[in-house]
Specification:
Distance between the termini: 30 Å
Shape: globular
Radius of gyration: 16 Å
Number of strands: 5
Helix content: 55-70%
Number of helices: 10
Strand content: 5-15%
Structural class: alpha/beta
Largest sheet: 5 strands, parallel
Strand order of the largest sheet: 3-2-1-4-5
Length: 166
């Protein structure tokens, strides 16, 4: 089973699309760091994500004091302002696993460190690939994704939608 570390932006996109059950049905071990998990503060979101955490479908990685020191010492080419972002990148390097994020700077930094990196669009594609969603539903979700997260590349969403319609 493939290990994936996700950031909060992808989780929030999937929450907004109301496809968290489908996401956690992927053939992958979904994890995040405690620093990222603590960014979930809206009450109804906290309740929903706690269900996945308690059921171990979302594993929350706690960093030791030594690991936190290593993250603080970890230098990146880009100024990653967010400590949660640095914890995810650092942990994905340590575990040699994929990273899910919608943050452009973090994606570029991860790629430079040899980390496999994807975002919300990829998740929708993966749900189709694993026969969790049909193509018609995926195209509809991609259209919704344009309004859920306006920072995503519209041209990429359109390209994936077009491919799924074929």
């Amino acid at each position: 089973m493939k290990l994936i570390i996700t950031d909060v932006s992808v989780l929030f996109d999937l929450y907004q699309l109301e496809i968290l059950p489908e996401f956690f049905a992927l053939k992958a071990e979904i994890s995040t760091t405690s620093f990222v998990y603590n960014e979930i503060v809206i009450a109804n979101q906290v309740v929903e994500f706690e269900v996945y955490k308690r059921s171990q479908k979302l594993k929350v990685i706690m960093l030791t004091d030594e690991e936190q020191d290593a993250v603080n010492q970890f230098t990146t080419k880009r100024n990653l302002k967010s400590l949660p972002d640095k914890t995810m990148l650092w942990k994905s390097i340590q575990l040699n696993c994929a990273l899910l994020t919608c943050d452009r700077k973090l994606k570029l930094e991860a790629k430079e460190h040899g980390v496999e990196v994807h975002g919300s669009i990829w998740v929708v594609e993966k749900l189709v690939e694993e026969n969790i969603l049909d193509k018609h539903k995926a195209v509809s979700l991609l259209d919704q994704l344009k309004t859920v997260n306006d920072r995503l590349p519209i041209d990429e969403i359109d390209k994936v939608s077009k491919r799924l319609k074929m």
